[in-house]
Specification:
4 helices; globular; 8 strands; Rossmann fold; 4-stranded parallel sheet; about 160 residues; alpha/beta
Length: about 160
C-alpha cells in the first residue's frame, strides 16, 4: 500500500481552530488525503467550511442517533456521543468515497475532572482549549454546557 492509498479522517466537534492531528500531518509533510469530519449540528460549521473547504466532510447526525443507545452506559458512553456517531458515519462515508484504507483520529477535546470527582464513577469535564494542556495540570474553566453525565467547559486564561 502506498501513502497515496491511505486517507486520514480527523473527527472534530466544536473546535475548528484546534486540530493537532492535521498540524502533525503537515509538519511531517504528509502527502496523502485527509478530511475533517463533523456533524451537521455543529455550531461552528461555517468556520469549518472557511478553514477546511473541500477537505471538510459533514454527515447528517440524525441518521446515526437511531443506532446508538446512550441510556445504557457502562463506561459513560454518553460523554463520547459525538465520536460514536462520527465513527459510525465514517464507515458509510469511506465506502461512498471508494476508500479501502483509512485511519481515524479524534483529538480535539481535553478530558478532565474536578478535585472531588472519582474516576469511572463521576462524570467528566470536556475542555475546549486553544492552549496545549499537560496531564495533571490544574486549570480554571467556565462551564459552558452539560449533558446527562458530563460538563463542557472553556479554559479561563
Amino acid at each position: 500500500m502506498n501513502v497515496e492509498d491511505l486517507t486520514v479522517f480527523i473527527l472534530s466537534h466544536k473546535s475548528p481552530n484546534k486540530c493537532e492531528t492535521l498540524d502533525a500531518l503537515i509538519k511531517c509533510n504528509y502527502k496523502g488525503k485527509w478530511y475533517i469530519l463533523i456533524d451537521d449540528e455543529d455550531d461552528f460549521i461555517n468556520e469549518y467550511k472557511v478553514k477546511y473547504g473541500d477537505n471538510l466532510v459533514i454527515y447528517h447526525k440524525e441518521d446515526y442517533k437511531r443506532n446508538v443507545d446512550l441510556g445504557y452506559s457502562v463506561m459513560n458512553l454518553a460523554s463520547y456521543a459525538h465520536s460514536i456517531f462520527a465513527r459510525n458515519a465514517l464507515e458509510d462515508i469511506a465506502k461512498s468515497m471508494g476508500l479501502k484504507h483509512y485511519i481515524v483520529s479524534d483529538d480535539d477535546v481535553y478530558v478532565a475532572r474536578s478535585y472531588m470527582d472519582a474516576p469511572d464513577i463521576d462524570g467528566m469535564i470536556f475542555i475546549d482549549s486553544d492552549r496545549e494542556l499537560i496531564s495533571g495540570e490544574i486549570v480554571r474553566v467556565v462551564i459552558t454546557d452539560s449533558d446527562v453525565y458530563d460538563l463542557e467547559a472553556r479554559l479561563i486564561y
